[in-house]
Amino acid sequence: MTHRVAVLALDGVLPFDLGIAARVFNEAVDSYGRRLYGVVTCSLGGRPVRTSEGFRIEVDHDETMLRTADTVVIATQEPTPELLAGQGLPEELSTALASIPAGTRIVSQCTSAFVLAAAGLLDGYGATTHWALCDAFSALFPHIEVDPDVLFVDNGRVLTSAGGAAGIDLCLHLVRRDHGADVANGAARRCVVAPWRDGGQAQFIERPLPEDTQTSTAPTRAWVIDNLHQPISVADLSAHARMSVRTFARRFRAEVGESPAQWLIQRRVEAARRMLETTDLTVDQIASAAGFGSATLLRKHLHASVGLPPVAYRRRFAATE
Q1: Based on CB atoms within 10 Å of each CB, which residue in 171, 234, 238, 275 is the most buried?
Q2: CATH number of the domain at 3-191, please?
């Protein structure tokens, strides 16, 4: 059956963010070209919604759509002064969110994490939101651990994303989680976006790029992707970039937001995940092709990244006809 997605638009919604869920999910199709998701946009009372950009948007549905959806997405909206002052949510919104069935998946984009937190839907979970408002979020909801350095946080039923395009990453993550890499990659290609940026990738928090583009680490990163099967070390990376290890590590972190070693492990994990999902290679063969060298190391890093060993991961995410 088609997975039903209801996007809730509230006053102050960001127009760009409002269209993300429909854009990504509508591009997720099966091998016959049939859409795997049905997306509707709703508002409280079905009323027109005032956007952050000074115009209004009309929708076709009211909040009753939240009761029958498999996934509810709260589109990014500017937190109201009342919400930021700790006065909670309007009764109409609280009632609408309370009507969401217990098994429904709930997603917030960017600052809509404030809405979920105020509704009690993030109690007991970790979360993220736009890095610029993480301090305000922590002050309002000290019982919720907020991570300002990630693109999204997946708690299973409840997920939160950081600002702007991180909502695309989260939607693609959900497609990948629901239907595997092939479907998610196809949706990404049709949207002309990167197929995978891991949720742990750092938000871009005031990290200026080096002024001299000749000293960028980008060529070395591209070289790594083509040579993951090789036993590459951080020293090899710095040598390829013709920098000292210390200079390379400093410049790399400034550009990417994490250390070269962390980044290299994640690229190996991503390569292994793709092979587990799309090939019949053995775990040992995949470990070698991804550059881990042994199945033991692959199991260690895959489990640390996604909480599953290779065999269980393949069973859950391998592409099926």
Answers
A1: 171
A2: 3.40.50.880
> Tens digit of pLDDT for each residue in 85-118?
889 999 999 999 999 999 999 999 999 999 999 9
The phi-psi region of residue 5 (left if phi > 0; otherwise alpha if psi is between -120 and 50; otherwise beta) is: beta
CA distance 78 to 113: 11
Query: Are the C-beta atoms of 74 and 40 separated by less than 8 Å?
Result: no
Give me the residue spans of the domains in the chain: 3-191, 210-321
- Structure tokens that stand for 289 in this block: 């092709």
pTM over 0.70: no
Residues 41, 31: Cα–Cα separation, whole Å: 26
The position carrying tokens 């871009």 is: 204
Residue 129's nearest CA partner among 107, 155, 104, 110 is 110
Query: In 3D, which of 167, 3, 25, 19 has the Cα closest to residue 69?
Result: 3
Is 48:18 a contact under the CB 8 Å cutoff?
no
Fold classification of 210-321 is Arc Repressor Mutant, subunit A (1.10.10)
The C-alpha atoms of residue 303 and residue 198 are separated, in whole angstroms, by 15
d(CA 85, CA 76): 19
pLDDT tens, position by position, 257-267: 788 998 899 89
